[in-house]
Amino acid sequence: MEPVDKVRARADALADLGLSPCAGSQEIRDAWRQIAFHSHPDHKDGDSSGFSRAKAAYDFLRKEGLVTKGGASSGPPQPRRPRLKKRIIELPLEDIAACKAMLNPDQRLPQMHDDGEGRGASDACVSDHVPDAVGCYGRHLTYFVTTPVHHGANRVALPTTVLTSARHTEAEILSFQSKDTGAGEVIIPDTIRERKFPGAKSVRIRFDADQDIRDQFWLAG
After folding, report:
1. How far apart are CA 109 and CA 26, in angstroms?
2. CA angle 173, 129, 136 (to 5 degrees)
3. What are the start-end ranges of the E strands in the chain?
4. 192 C-beta neighbours (distance < 10 Å), count
5. For every one of its 221 residues, what pLDDT tens digit does the chain have, with 9 covering 90 and above?
6. CB 178 within 8 A of CB 147
7. How far apart are CA 52 and CA 36, in angstroms?
8. φ and ψ at 172, to 5 degrees?
9. Helix (H, G, I), strand (E, B) or coil at 119
10. Contact predicate 125/149, CB 8 Å
11. Whole-Å CA distances, 1 to 5, 20, 82
């Protein structure tokens, strides 16, 4: 059920109990007790329609967390926020091939520190990287790269339209300097993320990302 549908369902359930959308937990309990007594089939010559509708509404509101155990509510009901879904997108082979093709030694590169000047491809110790999967947690992206980061200059080609409905995958090449070699994480600066990754709230790259790294993505809060 989509969030907007849940909001409507909660309002309908409260209306079935004769309550306003801002009714608190204790009001819901009291309304249910009244209806349960007065609309019980034993008091309605076997007619259970009103009782059944109210019970279904009460059960739904309790499941949604709008009916707390104990006494009175401290305020209006607080609907539970929908939990963000995690997913890992395996990049199609054609997208990976397109990213590899972009890593052309004659190409000038945008810098991670976003100084607006490209870095010449003649620089030494450049190591190229391409991700094979993207982890999505809401609008937070994690690119998984199986190759380790290298000391010195590194380049990585990233698909940037993961969160859009673009028919054709677009990619960007970014470069950065590393003081270490091996596994590691690079966080894309906000100035580049806002321009290059439409819709993303954060973008990070995990290097030397094996299955354990992917498992950590699933387990992280």
Report:
1. 62
2. 80
3. 86-90, 127-129, 133-137, 140-144, 152-159, 171-178, 184-187, 202-207
4. 17
5. 556 677 788 888 888 888 887 888 888 888 888 887 777 665 556 566 777 888 888 888 888 888 876 544 445 555 555 566 788 999 999 889 889 988 875 544 455 554 444 444 444 346 899 999 999 998 899 999 999 999 999 999 999 888 887 677 788 999 999 999 999 999 999 999 999 998 899 999 999 999 888 888 877 75
6. no
7. 9
8. -135, 150
9. strand
10. no
11. 6, 22, 10
Distance separating alpha carbons of residues 23 and 11, to the nearest angstrom: 10
Cα 186-143-104 angle, rounded to 5 deg: 85
Closest by Cα among 113, 128, 205 to 160: 205
* Structure tokens given for 161: 């339209």
Tokens of 57: 């509404």
Which pTM was predicted? 0.56
